[in-house]
Amino acid sequence: EAALWAILHRKRGHVNAEAILSGGGLLELYRTSCELDGREPQLTTPAEVTAAALAGEPYAAAVLEQFCTWLGRIAGDNVLTTGARGGVYVVGGIVPRFAEFFMRSGFSRSLRDKGDMSRYFDDIPVWLVTAEYPGLEGAGVALQQALEGTSAG
C-alpha cells in the first residue's frame, strides 16, 4: 500500500481520497498497481476493471479489494473526525455496481480497524445506498416538506 501511495503521489502530487475513491480513481488504482507490479494494463475503463473483478479475474479482484479497503479506512477516519454516531452511508455511482463484492470485501474491517478507537464503531451501522439518484430524491422530499409546511401556515 505504501508503494502504491508513493507512485500515486509521484504522479499526482497530493493524493486525495476523492480522486482515488471514484470510478476514475479505480482505473488509476488499477494502472498504478500494474505499474508497481511491472504488468501491462489490459483494462481501460472502470467498468472493465469491475467486470473483470466480478468475473473472478484475480488481479482485478485484488485491485477492487484494495479500493474497498481504502474506502473503509477513509470512511472510518471521517466517522472519528466528525464524531458521527448515526451511521455510515456509502453513496455514489460506483459501489452499488459491485454491491455483493463490497459486502464481502475488507471495507467493514478497515472501517473499524482504528486501534484503541475500534470499539467506537460497535454500534454504528453501515448502509449502502442503491437509489439511482439519491440526491435528487432527497431534494424532492425536502421540497415537498417545505411546500407542505408553507401551505399549512
Could you list some keywords that capture this structure?
mainly alpha, 153 residues, Hexokinase, domain 1, globular, 8 helices, 62% helix, single chain
> Strand percentage, roughly?
under 5%
**Largest sheet data:** 2 strands, parallel
Global structural class: mainly alpha
In quaternary terms, these chains amount to: single chain
Which radius of gyration do the C-alpha atoms yield? 18 Å
Which CATH architecture would you pick? 3-Layer(aba) Sandwich
The percent range for helix content is 55-70%
CATH topology: Hexokinase, domain 1
Element pattern in H and E: HHHHHEHHEH
The termini sit apart by 57 Å
Q: What is the count of structural domains? A: 1
Strand order of the largest sheet: 1-2
Structure annotation, total helices: 8
How many runs of DSSP E, i.e. beta strands?
Answer: 2
User: What's the overall geometry?
Assistant: globular
Unreliable spans are none
Mean pLDDT: 92
CATH class: Alpha Beta
